[in-house]
Predict the 3D structure of the following.
Amino acid sequence: RNFFTKRTKELKPAVQSAPGWKLFGKVPPRENLPKDSKIIQQEYEARTGRMYKPPLPSARRKNIEFEPLSTTALILEDRPANLPAKSVEEALRHRQEYDEMVAEAKKREIKEAHKRKKIMRERFKQEENIASAMVIWVNEILPNWEGMRATRRVRELWWQGLPPSVRGKVWSLAVGNELNITPELYEIFLSRAKERWKSFSETSSENDIEGASVADREASLELIKLDISRTFPSLYIFQKGGPYHDLLHSVLGAYTCYRPDVGYVQGMSFIAAVLILNLEEADAFIAFANLLNKPCQLAFFRVDHSMMLKYFAAFEVFFEENLPKLFLHFKSYSLTPDIYLIDWIFTLYSKSLPLDLACRVWDVFCRDGEEFLFRTGLGILRLYEDILLQMDFIHIAQFLTKLPEDITSEKLFSCIAAIQMQNSNKKWAQVFASLMKDNKEGEKNHSPALKS
């Protein structure tokens, strides 16, 4: 009141005729001098016949020491003086409802606390397992790699996932270096790539540089730059200005010069990025080049349709064997493996799965080879079989193109373990070899030389 009184006294006569204001309504312009708040109150009481009485302290509950901090506590408050008081039964019911709400909240809190403790226990257990496994890998397995890599103990330990500290080293040893690439060779191709980038940026002539057409050079340069910005965008480390942007660009550019017959293909950036995260620059390039030289990766990255169809046919053999209901469901919609499997194979699941889970898939892939890539695909289909059986063509394609982000390694690997890579006593390699043999015999039977 003192505040508004003071303001009233300070008002100038020039604003005496200014329109007044009223919340949620309009009033006519003021014609008289501003009135004191006490005078306004007296006039209101005289006009309405009502007297304003401030609430007495005794009207409120005497045992309340604080204002309720949430709406749940309001049910314990007495009603205002101008409303009928609560009956005894109603007050008891409100007290019971409030107690039930408090008890339910406590239950939720206890449940969440137990959940957090469980997660922490699992995390500590996982860290202890990683630490103990790291000691075994460093002290026992890696010094005796050739003798121990195929033993049952090492294979079982391998299945559980490699410790991050030794992951890159094990990948390098498992992938091997059949191409005999050296760090010096990497530097040669890297310098060549830098020269090509410089030459292309300085001139846009139609002349060929080192046997590559302008269109090829432009596609390689622009596509690499474009793909790097799309590689693990949530990590922000491969985007321009990030710590690994130039490194990834160098590895991909050097490979483009090293294998001009393959060139750069979309999806390569994800494979190179995963290797860079686990290996030094030159070692990452060596592993990258050797990995892409494997039959399966070479067939896909060179877009060898004949070989790709053989891999899809082999995949469908084990698909029908392990998941017959889902296989028939896919077949009814003419949903072929190339719709979802190409993206998985091109990026070795690094784009489709969470990064930590993708690295664990890579662990076993380095142990088992290309077979595990297709076994992982069947494991994903098994994990979501019930959901996929309820979907049509469009929704299945969309779902498998962008898998749920909450997929866990325990659930996925339990489904992968349940997949049997055996059909009529034939393993993956035998089924694939028989498909290749049938293809060669079919080509012979259809050749013009034999017909003549």
In short: The radius of gyration is 37 Å. Confidence is low (pLDDT under 50) at residues 6-27, 58-68, 205-215, 446-452.
